[in-house]
Design goal:
By secondary structure, the chain is of the alpha+beta class. It has one domain: TusA-like domain (Translation Initiation Factor IF3, 2-Layer Sandwich). It is 24% helix and 28% strand. The chain starts with 11 loop residues before the first strand and ends in a 10-residue tail after the last strand.
Length: 93
Amino acid sequence: MNTPQWLDSGRIKISFDARPLLAEGIHPLERVQQECATLGPGEIYEIITPFPPAPMIEKMSSAGYAAHSQIGADGMFHTFFQKEQGTSKVVKS
């Protein structure tokens, strides 16, 4: 999958390594939703996980976020979210 035009590493406002939470059996969706709600125009949220967070991507996409996931040099999945222009959907868990 090609990197989307909106994905600019200089615009990442929050980078969250979810591995410690996941190791404790805690799902990070609620935290991601809350933190993404603080993003300003053009800002990007990054979450790092050991697997592709497909249900989270689906949930965030349906809430009006552009999403892109890729495997980093560290072998982890780096997933990025950015609020799509002109959307104002409320994210609910």
